[in-house]
Amino acid sequence: MSAHPPGAAGLAVLHERAGTTPFYAMDLSALDARIDAMRAALPARLQLCYAVKANPLPALLRHVSRRLDGADISSAGELSRALDAGFPGERIGFTGPGKRDAEIAAAVAAGVRICAESSGEIDRIIRIAERTGRTARVALRANPDLAVRGSRVRMNGDSFFGIDSAQLGAAITQVRAGGLEFGGLHYYCASRLLDAGEIIAIHGHCFDEALQCADAAGVALPWLNLGGGFGVATADDETALDFAPVGDHLHALDARLQAHAPHARLALEPGRYLVAEAGIYVCSVIDRKTVRGRTWLIVDGGAHQHLHATLQPDRLQPANFPMTLHPRTRSDATERVSIAGPLCAPFDVLARDVELPRAQPGDLLVVQCSGAYGASASPVNFLDHPPPPEIVY
Questions:
Q1: 77-96 pLDDT, tens per residue?
Q2: Within 10 A of 192 (CB to CB), how many other CB atoms are there?
Q3: Which of 58, 62, 89, 304 is most buried, judged by most C-beta within 10 A?
Q4: pTM of the predicted structure, to 2 decimals
Q5: Domains along the chain with CATH numbers
């Protein structure tokens, strides 16, 4: 559910609240609409969680903690943010391939489900749990041998994420022998997936593998997290994900899971899909100029605050994010322009050859689909520009 970009009056109010440009603004009503749509499509028993890395803004986390079933975190800092926002420790999952001992100890103390990614990590959890006298709940992040189409952001196969699926049986034995509570299996194969058929194939493969693995190990499967990775269309060559068939397939998987292991729960942990379209990034035009026939607008925002809108590291080819320009003086004139930020760096380009109203210094540029992987995923200290305000409305 995309946010409706604010009109001139609404944008002026947000600008006044932020006090400066650039700034980020998150439409909580659009976020709620996406959550409601997902809830309506998914099985009632499925745990819908939030991947904090997509946007860790405290006000946003407080809001989703009241709407969702849990949070996925990948650091001690994110753990603190999730707990402060109101997520109980038992509703938090901790993923990531390089957890430090202090982070593991904090997760054990908070009752977090730790998604172990290696046998060495399991050994460290065992030692920390024994030293602290606490019971640790440990799921296993699986790395299935599965070809994934339609995404360049892969976390399975030939990657450093998770435990080779062929080693899961031994890992379950290690968890149980070490006195840890077996917390289930966790899968996350790829990100920015827009093809429902590909998502269904991934879910089906992982589901079948998880049940076979649990049966072979002689354990009941308490929890099966099928991850996230649902994409958001941001370019003209992309089509929005049709989530309905994904939801239908998850209903079928949930019915099979109930028949196989009545107390087991399915889980998902979307991030980008929940928040990206609910957010905007607003910057001001500083200058305009023509270089060898190309008209450039220079704005005060760019790669230091919104790296995904410039380099777009998760796309095969760069493409313009959807954006609108709001002139201070109304005019019907339009122009084809390219847009660069203020950095002394050649990669600081927000758009190339985009058709917009004719712009002048002081006009506002609104970059849509900016609710995920914004300021927290950007080199905000590069060149020492001030950080952007982040507000919700």
A1: 999 999 999 999 999 999 99
A2: 20
A3: 304
A4: 0.94
A5: 95-270 (3.20.20.10), 278-392 (2.40.37.10)
